[in-house]
């Protein structure tokens, strides 16, 4: 029951202007007849790095609130951006609040949190938290209970004080990134490695999928490299040139190469390969849902996009830097897996992907609704973060390369049907896929000879 409620709540109503009075979906009201109509509870459990960085339900299934996880990404941007839009100011205020909160939250084991959402307005109306957690998250929850129009003023008031008092630097990005990478909207994919009993998929189907795709005869490589790694760039250049030559867009010549750069940071509380997609200890199934919706969203405007992991590979990468050569990527019918880890991990990782994709094709109505809401929330956050019009950001998010002339992007996302979603998932399952494994060392890239051997397949 808890799992069902968690999957059906909608926090977005309180975040978007004009949605404050939006009623919750009828199916939610019908599904909880034993609970009062004005509110319902969802009990959630947290674990944090360096454990498994997972948000789990009591049953260990679907994460409590991907919305909460994405909202916590408000604390990920550089301090210098605090004056560029109210969302960035919120980020800084959040970090300031964090600096004065008890950091024991970051090392605690599954403190419980209770959310209560107003069913008529879909707005968080009350909450009860463990003591340490309450101090940490109070500012975010208090903002969520305010109307959209009031949010900006309340954040601006605390901005100056942040710059006067902020002395503790703490970047939530890696924590949240790990949370996002750990979950799948279909549930049951939050822990690695998977076992046959964890997923309900026949070995026959899985083997057929693996044999068809594991070493596909089409090459797809989006380079993952290290800053100033000359040899890697030299190798990536002809590979990306090969990709570019297949592009159907002849009006705008893309760059011959634009590798995503991954900076190795030894002090990270998880392995280097978790910065890219995915690692043997982390599942990025949730992110697949996220990017699949991006793909579906762009296709609904006849503007193909790709599944792409640049945010995980390098969160500071500007989308505009890499969007030019992603034109018509899905027209080629390819998507890539960049694996930073030993070659032995490659088959395990692809097995993970295969299971996730096959399960995704059978996504439920409730999970599909939550996935769309997740997409809308991310668009909203990035829109406010960049200070751009939502249509302008949506153009970059979907890598379409053209301006979308629409009044309400969110309404367009709502129009995406479950059948359309499943159809595109099937198209992606049927596409050729290659795995590029970049070695097992965390402090250096593999040899060029090793990489050439891998990509020759």
From TrEMBL:
InterPro entries in UniProt: Metalloenz_LuxS/M16 (IPR011249), MPP/UQCRC_Complex (IPR050361), Peptidase_M16_C (IPR007863)
Q: Which SUPFAM superfamilies match?
A: LuxS/MPP-like metallohydrolase (SSF63411)
Pfam families the UniProt entry points to:
Peptidase_M16_C
A Gene Ontology molecular function term for this protein is:
metal ion binding
The residues covered by the Peptidase M16 C-terminal domain are 200-375
Taxonomically, which superkingdom? Answer: Eukaryota
Q: Which PANTHER family match?
A: METALLOPROTEASE, MITOCHONDRIAL-PROCESSING PEPTIDASE SUBUNIT ALPHA
Q: Which family does it belong to?
A: Belongs to the peptidase M16 family.
- What's this protein's function? Substrate recognition and binding subunit of the essential mitochondrial processing protease (MPP), which cleaves the mitochondrial sequence off newly imported precursors proteins.
Recorded protein name is Peptidase M16 C-terminal domain-containing protein
